[in-house]
Amino acid sequence: MIPEPKRIDLSFQWLSFQSLSPYLRREPVTVALLTGLTIVLFLAVGGLSRLYHAQQASLAVRWAGRGVDDLNADHYKVAITDFRTALLYDRDNGAYQLSLAQALLGLGRTDEAYAYLINLWGRQPENGVVNLELARIAVSKGETDRALRFYHNAIYATWPGDQEIERRKARLELIDYLLRIDARTQAESELIALEANVGENAAQQALLGDLFLRVGDDGRALAAFRASLKLEKKNPAAEAGAGRAAFEMGQYAEAEHFLEEAVAAAPADASSAELLKTTEAAIRMDPFRPQIPDRERGQIVMDAFATAGDRLKTCQASAASAPMPGKKPAAGSPIAAWQQLAGQWAALKPQVTEKALRDNPDLVNTAMNLAFAIEHAAGATCGPATGADQALLLIAGQHQEN
C-alpha cells in the first residue's frame, strides 16, 4: 500500500512573512527619509556657512570702506581702527593690510608699518605700492642702498590703474631723492631714462627741463623746454626755463628771446627779469660780436676797460685794509697781485682811446684780456660779480684767449 504524500504545513511560514512584510515595506521609506533629511541638513549647514562668510565679508568691506574715507581725510588714528576691524573679518586681505600700513605711516609708526609691508612684500614682491612705501621707509632711516633697490622695484613693478603714470611718478620721486642727497650723476641717468617715456606732454616736458637744469645738463634741459613750448606756445614757466638753460650754455641771443617772452607774460617774475638784464648786458658789452661798426666796438672796449678799472680800485682798497700797516706786501700776496694789475691797467689806460682802438685792432684784445684778468681776480677775492662786472665774466667765458 502506497503511503500518502506527507503534507507540509506552510501556514507558519506564510504567517511569519505576513507579519514581517510591514517592516520590510517601511525600511526603504525610512532609509529614504533619513537620506533626504541628511541632504537637507547638509544644504542647511552649507547655506548657513555661506551666509556667515557673506556676512563676514560684508562687514570687512564696510569697515574697509570707512577706513579708506578716513585715510583719504588724513584721520589716521581712526583709519587704523577701521582697517584692524576689517582684518578681523578678512584677516588675509592684502589690500586691507597695505592700507593699515599706510595709516600707521601717517602717524609716524614706521616700525609697525614696516612689519606689515615686509610681510606683504614677501607675498607680493611685484607690488608697486608696497615697494614704494618700503623705499620711503628706507629714505626716512637713511638707508640709501635699500631705498634705491625698492625704488627701482617700484619703477618696474605691477601697479593698479595706469601703470605708466604710476611708474613715472615713482621714478620722479627717486630723482628728487637723488637730488636731495646730491647724487647728480645717478639722477641724470634716471632723467635720461625718463626722457624716453615722456612723449608729447607739455607739462611733463617742462618738468623734465627743470630737472635737467637741477642736475646741470643744460643741453637736455633746453631741448625739453623747446619740446614743451612746441606743444604749448605760451607757457611763461617753460620760456623762463628755456632762457635759463640757453643762458647757462652761453647762447645769449636765444636766452634773450626766451626771457623777453617770459617777462612779458609774467612781469612779476623777478628772477627772469634780472637774468634778462644780465643777458642783455652780456650781448651789449661784447666787442667781439660780428658786424658791429668800429666806432661802436671802440666805445664798448672803453666802457669795459673802465668797468674793470672801477672793480680793480674797489678790490685793491679792500685788500690793502687787511694786512698790518708798515709791512711790505710779500711777492705773490693778494696785495702784490693787485698792485701788478693796477700797474698794468694804469699803463694801458692812455692807449685805450677810440682812435687807437680803430687804428690798432690788436689793442682790442689786449685791453679786453686785461679787463678779463681783473674781473677773474676780483671774483676770486672780492665776492661774486654783479651787473656789468658779471657781464664781462660771461663774455670772457666765451672769447678769452687761452
Structure summarized in a few sentences:
With 402 residues, the protein is mainly alpha-helical. The chain is built from 18 helices and no strands. It is 78% helix and 0% strand.
Describe the protein in words.
Helix 1 (11-72) packs antiparallel against helix 2 (76-89), helix 10 packs antiparallel against helix 11 and helix 14 packs antiparallel against helix 15. The N and C termini lie far apart (163 Å). 78% of the residues lie in helices and 0% in strands. The chain is elongated and about 140 Å long. The model has no long low-confidence stretch (mean pLDDT 86). It has helices at 11-72, 76-89, 94-106, 110-123, 128-140, 144-155, 163-180, 184-198, 202-215, 218-231, 236-248, 252-265, 270-284, 294-320, 334-348, 354-359, 361-381, 387-399. By secondary structure, the chain is an all-alpha fold. Among the domains are: 182-284, Serine Threonine Protein Phosphatase 5, Tetratricopeptide repeat; 294-319 and 331-399. It contains 18 helices and no strands.
